[in-house]
Design a protein that fits this description.
Rossmann fold; about 425 residues; seven-stranded parallel beta sheet; six-stranded parallel beta sheet; 13 strands; alpha/beta; elongated
Length: about 425
């Protein structure tokens, strides 16, 4: 079986869990004898292509006089809007990015029709215009490629998937890793919502990363439940030994690692930290990540007079993440709405016990994790306290948690995805 797959990022160039999930899934599919052509807006040349053939959309040349392109473009003019949108960054941080000239310089009046597009591959200025151009490239790749199924990951690539389906008639599978309701709560970006809804309506199958997300797709988007299938994410076994790092502090370390946005619930972590520090000063709390709530969180830590025991590291990736886990005694993910949540699996893989919110997809599959409602600060504080102060509980969650997460393999997720593929031909 051959699959034409559209994604927006691929390791090592990632900003969150989406690229990691795409990488793990494609490696698992390779073991299922599925050939994957993976299209990204911009390839850097250092991606691992052992399991996929990576196509750089920035290298492709198209014939804009082709009637198929023109016919398709008429059908997706709803995408042709200008927007300074970065999916994982809120208004406050966006303003800071703009002031620091970190956004890509793309002129808003640039014509969509060109024989060749150069994509930034980032979540930068005029993102929706890039999504539109990427859809046009998607149609071109589809016309020239041999494949059986189209698979598009998240809203950024849904228009490309629709384009490929329209020009080839091949079945389309869309993968919902996170909905606009997860990212924004009830204050959804209407353009993004419409893209998500259109993608799922046009798809022959929809894959969600949890039953939690599946329920949102049915309730908020009105998608037919019969074509929605849940395939939980997984985590690769660590190929590096956890090193011995000198902590330089005698206190226990509790870590939050994720985007500092509404979705991730960083404020609940800070409030729980304050409650614990009233009872025990021998604990340090680390908030690793960036986002539009960062300044607010720094101010709140100062208001609660816990700054001397609270640390903000900024964004961590690669070996720095491994090091942070090696220095941690407890990992906490208090997400308000988490479609899945791969980071707790990475923490457990590193022998760190975890506390997660019940409002997360990963809570559906984990047995050896403490689970609380995101809004229950008392429950969150008690769970962290228990792991820090009851040695037998701490050791039990490390022992059985590591075994549990080692059995959550991408090979199993890939097998379930191939079953979804096969259902299209029955």
């Amino acid at each position: 079986m051959k699959v034409l797959m559209f994604g927006w990022e691929f390791p090592p160039h990632i900003t969150g869990g989406l690229g990691t999930a795409c990488y793990g899934l494609t490696k698992g599919l390779a073991k299922q004898n599925v050939d994957v052509i993976f299209v990204v807006p911009k390839a850097y040349g250092d991606e691992d292509q052992s399991a996929v053939r990576l196509v750089n959309a920035s290298d492709l040349i198209i014939d804009t006089a082709d009637t198929d392109y023109q016919e398709f473009w008429k059908k997706i003019t709803y995408m042709e809007i200008g927007s300074n949108l970065i999916p994982y960054v809120g208004p406050e941080e966006f303003k800071r990015y703009a002031e620091e000239n970190k956004l890509d310089e793309v002129t808003l009046d640039e014509k969509v029709y060109r024989t060749k597009f150069t994509f930034s591959g980032k979540y930068g200025k005029d993102l929706l215009a890039e999504v539109s151009r990427y859809a046009l490239i998607g149609a071109g790749v589809a016309q020239k490629s041999d494949f059986d199924i189209i698979h598009a990951h998240d809203w950024l690539t849904y228009p490309a998937g629709i384009a490929a389906k329209k020009v080839t008639g091949k079945p389309l599978v869309v993968h919902m890793h996170a909905t606009e309701f997860d990212r924004s709560g009830e204050n959804v970006n209407q353009e993004v919502y419409e893209i998500e809804k259109k993608g799922m309506e046009e798809a022959d199958r929809v894959i969600t990363v949890s039953n939690f997300t599946r329920a949102i797709v049915i309730e908020k988007y009105g998608i037919n439940p019969d074509k929605i299938f849940t395939v939980h994410n997984a985590v690769d076994p660590s190929d590096t030994e956890v090193g011995e790092y000198q902590r330089h502090v005698k206190e226990k370390v509790v870590t939050f690692l994720g985007r500092l946005t509404f979705q991730k619930g960083p404020e609940y972590f800070i409030e729980a930290a304050a409650m614990i520090l009233k009872r025990d000063k021998n604990v340090r709390f680390v908030m690793a990540g960036t986002g539009d709530m960062m300044n607010k969180m720094i101010k709140r830590a100062a208001q609660l007079h816990i700054s001397s025991n609270f640390h903000f590291t900024g964004f961590l990736k690669g070996s720095d993440v491994d090091k942070m886990f090696a220095l941690s005694d407890v990992f906490v993910m208090p997400s308000v709405s988490e479609p899945f949540g791969i980071v707790p699996l990475e923490a457990m893989r590193s022998n760190v016990p975890v506390v997660i919110s019940k409002q997360s997809g990963v809570s559906e599959i984990l047995k050896h994790a403490l689970k609380v409602d995101f809004w229950d600060i008392n429950g969150l504080a008690d769970a962290i306290w228990g792991l820090l102060h009851y040695d037998s509980l701490y050791k039990m969650f490390i022992k059985y948690g590591k075994t549990e997460v080692d059995n959550l393999k991408w090979d199993n997720a890939a097998f379930k995805v191939t079953e979804v593929y096969n259902s299209l031909f029955k």
